[in-house]
Design goal:
- The structure holds two protein chains of two kinds.
- Chain A has eleven helices and no strands.
- Chain A is mainly alpha-helical.
- Chain A has two domains: about 80 residues, no CATH class; about 180 residues, no CATH class.
- In chain A, helix 7 crosses helix 8.
- The longest helix of chain A is centred in the first third of the chain and has 52 residues.
- Chain B has a single domain, classed as Helix Hairpins (Orthogonal Bundle).
- Chain B is elongated.
- The chains are: A mainly alpha, B mainly alpha.
- The interface between A and B is large, with 65 and 59 residues.
């Protein structure tokens, strides 16, 4: 009796669940499989469509979206520019007391005729130290990424040293470039120029020398060790000369170096040596960029 | 729209340059061209800063004959900021070019879409 009751409840449960029909005894649960099969084919069809057209249509949508973003950005920027204060007006908010102070007392306090040099190498010298450090870190990263192992170095380097045109022109241009670079560095506090631009010019001269007279000849003079030592000594000098202002809370302690007559080459205290240090760092960094990108070694 | 769009023609030009560089960064699949677009954006910023520092009729901020009156010279601060910007942009360009060279050695192409497809294939 009990088993009969159990059977009936079991059948009733099945009926409630929907997978048992009293009349047809049983219904196959095929539709589910069918729908699953259909979904599979949809997925397959999507994958086929994706392989054939997906990248293409994605590219179209991407191009449309990026043009929309760029045009919107341009319109917003131009709209902002139209509300900016008028160009060249001395009463603009950008020309406030800070810049007045720099031009008014710069000569007296730093001894540099070039106000920009006085600003970046005296008032804001620690900032310039950070700038050189950025350049140094970039050179280190490039070295990590591109330096080759001893074994992998190619022995057949591309050498233009047999090209007579480059050689003869370089004979004339390289000394001029180097002298012009030295002039820019040494006159950084008197005229436009300074460590960064002079260093870039000198680095260009070294790169021209290396590519005109052959890599082997250049690497005899300019070695990896020499470049590293120059950069290290320049950095240490800069850090000792200007790092103290960081520890004294940016209070300028007088260095005791006389500022000299404004307009002479030897004047303006620490600005000239700092310019030379920055110029050496930039020269070595530029040359090592070239050597690393070209050959994977200095 | 404000009144100064054509008075500030340097700023207008720099913003158009910036948008051109941004579009290049988005639309070019070639990595080297993306880096060129980045450099165009940098140049636009230098032009903008230089234009902000200009004062009509002002001389370059190099003191002549001991005249230290600020109204004679242009504003020296944006010039210093442009110097900083140039150095940082050189560093960023060098690092990104080194990465591009490494990517080229690994995948033999500079097209970023093809590199992504190759990465996907390797993952599968």
């Amino acid at each position: 009796m009990k088993t009969m009751k159990n059977k009936i409840t079991a059948v009733f449960k099945k009926f409630i669940d929907g997978d048992f029909d009293i009349e047809a005894k049983e219904i196959k649960v095929k539709p589910e499989i069918k729908s699953e099969h259909k979904e599979q084919s949809m997925k397959e069809r999507y994958l086929i469509w994706h392989d054939n057209h997906g990248v293409h249509s994605f590219k179209t949508i991407y191009a449309g979206c990026s043009i929309f973003v760029c045009v919107t950005l341009a319109v917003i920027l131009l709209y902002t520019v139209s509300y900016l204060p008028a160009y060249g007006n001395p009463l603009n908010p950008a020309n406030n007391e800070v810049s007045d102070r720099y031009t008014e007392f710069g000569l007296e306090e730093t001894g540099a005729v070039n106000t920009v040099a006085g600003m970046i190498l005296d008032y804001r010298a620690f900032d310039t130290f950070g700038e050189s450090a950025v350049l140094f870190v970039a050179a280190s990263i490039v070295m990590m990424l591109l330096k080759k192992d001893e074994k992998k170095r190619s022995k057949h380097l591309e050498d233009h040293s047999r090209d007579p045109i480059i050689k003869h022109i370089a004979q004339v241009i390289v000394p001029c470039l180097l002298i012009f670079g030295v002039y820019l560095v040494l006159n950084g506090h008197l005229s436009p120029g300074g460590g960064f631009s002079g260093g870039a010019v000198m680095g260009a001269g070294l790169i021209l020398y290396s590519s005109a007279f052959g890599y082997r000849k250049a690497s005899k003079v300019i070695t990896d060790k020499l470049l590293r030592n120059i950069v290290f000594v320049s950095f240490c000098f800069y850090a000792v000369a200007k790092g103290y202002s960081f520890f004294t809370g940016a209070n300028h302690i007088p260095t005791g170096i006389p500022l000299g007559t404004a307009g002479n080459i030897i004047s303006s205290g620490l600005i000239l040596p700092l310019n030379i240090a920055v110029g050496l760092i930039v020269t070595c960094t530029m040359y090592s960029f070239y050597a690393l990108f070209n050959k994977g070694e200095i | 729209m404000g009144p100064n769009l054509f008075t500030n023609y340097y700023e207008t030009a720099s913003m158009i340059l910036f948008a051109i560089g941004f579009t290049t960064l988005f639309l070019q699949p070639n990595i080297i061209k993306k880096i060129i677009g980045f450099n165009i954006m940098d140049t636009a910023i230098y032009l903008f800063l230089g234009a902000k520092g200009y004062i009509a009729g002002g001389l370059a901020p190099i003191i002549v004959n001991g005249v230290t009156d600020p109204s004679v010279y242009i504003n020296p601060i944006p010039s210093g900021l442009v110097l900083t910007g140039i150095v940082v942009s050189v560093s960023v360009t060098a690092v990104s070019l080194a990465l591009a060279q490494r990517l080229y050695k690994r995948y033999n192409t500079l097209n970023i879409d093809e590199i992504l497809l190759q990465v996907e294939k390797e993952r599968a």
